Description:
The chain is α/β, with parallel strands linked by helices. The protein contains 10 helices and 14 strands. Strand 5 and strand 6 form a beta hairpin. Iron/sulfur cluster (SF4) binds next to loops. The site of iron/sulfur cluster has 10 residues, from loops.
Amino acid sequence: MEIKKKDIRALTKEQLREFFVNEGDKAFRGNQVYEWLWSKGAHTFEDMTNISKETRQMLEDNFVINHIEVDTMQRSSDGTVKNAVKLHDGLIVESVLIPTETRTTACVSSQVGCSLDCKFCATSRLKRMRNLNPDEIYDQVVAIDRESKLYFNRPLSNIVFMGMGEPLMNYNNVIKAIDKITSPEGLGMSPKRIVVSTSGVPKMIKKMADDAVKFNLAVSLHSAIDEVRTSIMPFNETFPLKDLKEALEYWYKKTERKITYEYVVWDGINDSMKDIEALVKFCKYVPCKVNIIEYNPIDDGAFQQASNTTIDNYIAELERNRIVVNVRRSRGKDIDAACGQLANKT
Ligand code: SF4
């Protein structure tokens, strides 16, 4: 019977050290292998040239090294790059590189498909197949870092967890991936440059606050009226705005870090004065800023971006109430890499 080999990158450094001690070797061997796996990005045990042949064979007999593979890569006329990433079991997720004048941002996926059902989102049409492992999340970032250096001559500067999936529904693996991204043995990035964007799972927002995470939090809000929010994000029925508000107050009390609300304004859905006033009120609960995001229709076109006049009304009212508001232009529309479009055609 064939023994199912374990993914060696699922082991922590401590577990690798223990493995070598149990094999009668030195714990230090674990450090060497760990360095090959994470800092040097080894794809095979053969690559580990300072490890003896016998040890490499023993690793080969016990483990596999799973790496993602960029299956197809598309470049937009605005410089945005979308990767369709093949996982070791053949499933595909997408990640996006978004360049601006001063920064390169990676938008990464945390799940294959999504269990939530946001009506405006292409990913919601794929049922959730599985969570991504920490190394699969990490590898998406490494691939985009490589592309950033290749196409823009600079390393990746920011990461947003806004690709496929709800990151807080895969919390442990997202945290492990971020630990690796921020550790000196990984990419050594500052957690201040990482944003985890959630549709708003109150219990997990509180857990993040208790865990004293150092990255930033964004919430896809899209409406501050329960009825409207439930109609576009049905899970709001289970996690209504009052629970979200309470969790965000808890987050701010513990972390003292502002929250970003992601907000799309759709024609006929959340474009009335009542919607604007509700958002202003919600913004007063906890220090925050609002990103108004340009929307890209997905195929059936039920959701259409509201007029510029409506968006200007939102901006004016938020600013009048001294709430910081930015408008985020959409990127990579021509390759379906823009917000809400992932999984549209691949
Ligand atoms: S917007 Fe995010 S949480 Fe909602 S269905 Fe899409 S991927 Fe899932």
